[in-house]
Structures are given as C-alpha cells and as structure tokens.
Design a protein that fits this description.
Number of helices: 18
Largest sheet: 5 strands, parallel
CATH topology of the largest domain: Rossmann fold
Distance between the termini: 48 Å
Radius of gyration: 27 Å
Strand order of the largest sheet: 3-2-6-1-7
Number of strands: 21
Structural class: alpha/beta
Shape: elongated
C-alpha cells in the first residue's frame, strides 16, 4: 500500500513492544515518509534511524510523574503540524489503541478535520508474555483473556476497574502499568476473591535484550518486586499459563541474552551486525561514529571508473568501495561485461561477498589484510606485477602502504578514491547518551576509522567492557589508542565477528 501523495495527514503508528523485528512494514513506511515524528518513551529509538534527512523529531513521552507534554498539548501539536501540510507520524509503544490513548488522539484529529490513519502494532500484552515463555491462551488452561490497566486516569473520581469482576474472571489476566502499585492491586484482587496462590509473572523491557522476568504468586509478588527492586515498564501476567514458562522460555535461553553490545558501524551498514547479535538474544544497539560520503573529487573517481576496462587488475579494499564503484559504473554502463578483462581482487571476505552481489566472481582474496602480507600474497598469486596495470579502489583515509609496495614492485597503479568517512554528528537514537550512562558488555569495531572516530567522541569506556575487533587493521587502530581487542574472529567478516562474540561468552 502506497502512502498518499497529498500533504497533511497523521499516522497513528504502533511501534511494537520493543524488539525491532516486531515493527510492521507499514510502520516503517510511515517513519520513512514523515516530515514530523512525535514519539513516546517506550518506542525503540532505533526506528528513528529510518527517518529521512531533515525530519523534525519531537519527544512527547510520558513516564510516571514526568510528562514531556500534557496530552492536550500533544493533540494540538499533531493537529497544528497536519494543518501546516506536514506528514506526521505519531509513534506509540505497542499498539496505539491498547491503553495508548490513540483513540483520543484520533478523535481530536477528526474533530479538527485532519486526515489520519491508524497503523496497528504488536501489543506488549501478548508479545511480552510470549517472549517470557508464557502463552496468554492455552486450551488446557483458559478460554478467556482479560486485559486491564493498573494505572487509570488520576482525575477520575470513581475507578472504572471493578476488582470484584476482575478477581472472579476466568482465565488469564494481563495488566499493564501497575508495577508501582503491585501491593495495592494484588491486595484488591485477593480481597475480592482471587486465590492468593495464583501464579504471577512480571516481564520488564519485554521482547528486548534487557528483558527481565520475575515470577511469584498474588500473595508474594509485591514483596518480590520490592526485594529485587523491580521497576517499570513491565507487563504482569496472572494465571495458570505462567506454569508453562520452564518449558516454553525460548528467548531468555539464547546465547547472548542479557549482553549489551554496541555497534559502531555506519547507520547504513549497522543492520547486518545488529540483527545477527539480536538473533542470539543480545541487547544490540547502534552508536554510529562515522558516515560514508562521496569523494571530494567525484569527477576524478568517475573518470577512473569509466576507464576500468583498461586495467588488468582491480583491487577493492572494502564493501563501501565496491558499492561506490558499481553505483557509478552502472550509471555509465548498462552491461557488467563492460568492466572488461580485469581480474578482481577483494580484501576480505566481506568485500568479496559485496562483489558477488553484483554477480561478478572474485579472482583472488588474500588470507591476510595487513598491507605487507597482502602485497606478498597478491604478487605470489599474480606471478609478477611488473608493468601490470592496477586500479586500487579505496577510501580516502586508507593507508598508502599498499600503493608504495606495489609501486616498488613495478606496478602501474592508479588510486580511485571511492568514498570518504566523516564523523557522524547526529545521535538520533541516543546511542552516545546511553553508552555514557550505562556502558556496555561489548564494544564492536569493524574498521579502523570507526575506532578513531569513536575515540574522538571522548566517551569513557568502563573497565569491564570488552572490545571486539573484526580484524588486524582494526586491532592496530585500537592499539594506537592504547586499547586491547579481547575478541577477534579468525575470518575477518561480520558473521565471523558475531560467532566470535558468542563463543567468547560461551567460554
């Protein structure tokens, strides 16, 4: 479904329970199209990386006794932006209509004559228990599900919660927003006839790598909350299906569950590493330190790409270089065969994989990425580079050691500066702030430039934080800054880096 082209609309979007993989495709479309994004406290801020450049970002979140904006002001903000002709995406944790006040916002938009669309999201009322190994319905336990809030409108004179009915209701009950009043709420349920021995589970930061689960009974859970310092945000499940947790607890048993891992790659590249780590249960979050931009002399790069068929060898030093090269190549040529007879060299398996995406075979991949060894391997493979024409496709900041060594061996070498890395100056998803406040179990680096730019941020690295390096060039950069690589894969690519991190914690 395409987004409408006319200006002035508000999308009331459910951003899901926290796991980035549970955000709907429609929600992603709305974020990408937005001129204005207004987001809540429980929204996973990694989704903000999908915004187009120049999007206005407004935080309107609410926490206990801490509201960025009162609800009436949020309503007026949405209306004002829509009437200005803006595409507004209102991001809400979970589903906008499940205790998300989305219905109220939709009413206000309708009353003001503003077009709107509601994009449902996966609610934490079902996703949270599922990630803790607790079905909210099960034919052996219940045929009824009751969902209620533990936090009503404080301006109400009379509560709309009838605890006598809730306590006596059959089946499983799920409560949102009640951790701070757990003793009061469980007491009311017991006083109204609920069995004190009824099983209870609390799931905090559900569906994320920070998930914590606390189990007890109606009689004991309030004391356990106090004992463990268990805080909001959490989903509460009350009922017999909690007993299935030992059998069905799949998420918390993953090898990297509970490990906080920082990904420092560019926003465009971070996804593969982040997704791989999350698939193993990690709380992987992105703190991009660099971004890739076009070379300063794009004309010179274009001329070398245009003449690429004249070379006997083309050496690609990184996936970024491959992408920049072929993006320009296919603007100049329509056929891959126009690359000519050149043999292709890829520095590292990640670079070779990127070349393969363009349906081209790589003739040689050196085992080592260190300049001296790389040149030795290449010469051994080629037989000789004397008078051989070579195009070296690289980034602006790449070391010139390779060029010097090849020139010394008699090669006729041209250097094609395909891209440059510059500091990432924005922190949309709050990665820098989070690392400053919390630290992490692991810092990952996939390039030397990422190391240099991370250090330029002057973020303190806690002593317990382990550093994972993708390979020797990155490790050398770490050493220049007095840092040690605790984790390095034998094969220098992203899948091997993920496996190396998992193996480290397994040991």
């Amino acid at each position: 479904m395409l987004l409408p082209t006319q200006p002035g609309i508000c999308y009331l979007v459910g951003a899901g329970p926290g796991d980035l993989g549970l955000v709907t495709l429609r929600a992603k479309e709305c974020i990408e199209a937005a001129d204005v994004v207004a987001y809540d406290y429980l929204v996973n801020k990694q989704v903000l990386a999908w915004m187009k450049p120049g999007t206005e970002l407004i935080y309107v979140g609410k926490q206990a006794a801490n509201h960025a904006l009162p609800q009436e002001e949020i309503n007026q903000l949405l209306i004002r932006k829509v009437l200005e002709g803006k595409i507004v995406t209102r991001l809400k944790g979970g589903d906008p209509y499940v205790f998300g006040r989305g219905g109220e916002e939709a009413q206000e938009l309708h009353a003001a004559g503003c077009p709107f669309e509601v994009v449902p999201g996966i609610s934490s009322t079902i996703a949270g228990p599922a990630y803790a190994g607790i079905p909210v319905t099960h034919r052996d336990f219940n045929t009824q599900l009751t969902i209620f809030t533990g936090h009503e409108d404080p301006t109400k004179e009379i509560s709309s919660l009838d605890f006598s009915k809730i306590a006596k209701a059959d089946g499983v009950k799920v409560m949102l927003m009640g951790v701070g009043r757990m003793g009061e709420l469980t007491g009311k349920l017991i006083d109204n006839g609920a069995d004190p021995g009824t099983l209870v589970a609390l799931i905090r930061w559900a569906t994320t790598g920070r998930q914590q689960t606390l189990t007890g009974t109606l009689a004991t859970i309030a004391g356990l909350v106090e004992q463990h310092g268990f805080k909001a945000p959490a989903v509460c499940v009350i009922g017999g299906t909690v007993s299935l947790r030992p059998e069905l607890n799949w998420f918390e048993k993953r090898p990297l569950f509970g490990k906080s891992i920082v990904v420092t790659r560019t926003r465009q590249q971070a996804g593969v590493l982040s997704q791989g780590l999350r698939a193993l249960g990690a709380d992987a979050w992105e703190l991009p330190t660099i971004r890739i931009e076009k070379p300063k002399d794009l004309m010179a790069f274009g001329e070398l790409v245009q003449d690429c068929h004249k070379y006997e060898w083309i050496i690609f030093t990184s996936p970024n270089g491959v992408e920049a090269f072929f993006d320009l190549f296919y603007k100049l040529y329509k056929d891959a065969r126009d690359i000519g007879p050149a043999k292709l060299v890829a520095i590292g398996p990640g670079t070779a994989k990127k070349i393969a995406e363009y349906h081209l075979s790589v003739d040689f991949v050196p085992e080592k990425s260190v300049a001296e060894s790389l040149v030795e391997e290449f010469i051994e493979h080629a037989g000789s580079v004397d008078n051989q024409t070579i195009l070296w496709v690289r980034g602006e900041s790449a070391r010139d050691t390779v060029a010097k060594l090849l020139h010394e061996k008699g090669a006729i070498l041209d250097e094609a500066i395909a891209y440059r890395t510059v500091p990432e100056t924005t922190d949309t998803a709050g990665g820098q702030a989070r690392f400053r406040e919390e630290g992490a179990d692991v810092l990952t680096f996939a390039s030397g430039s990422a190391v240099d730019h991370f250090m330029a941020l002057q973020l303190p690295i806690p002593p317990q934080t382990k550093i994972a390096s993708i390979g020797p060039v990155t490790t050398t950069a770490l050493k220049r800054h007095g840092l040690t690589a605790h984790i390095t894969p034998k094969t220098h690519d992203i899948p091997s880096l993920i496996k190396a991190i998992a193996d480290y914690f397994k040991k």
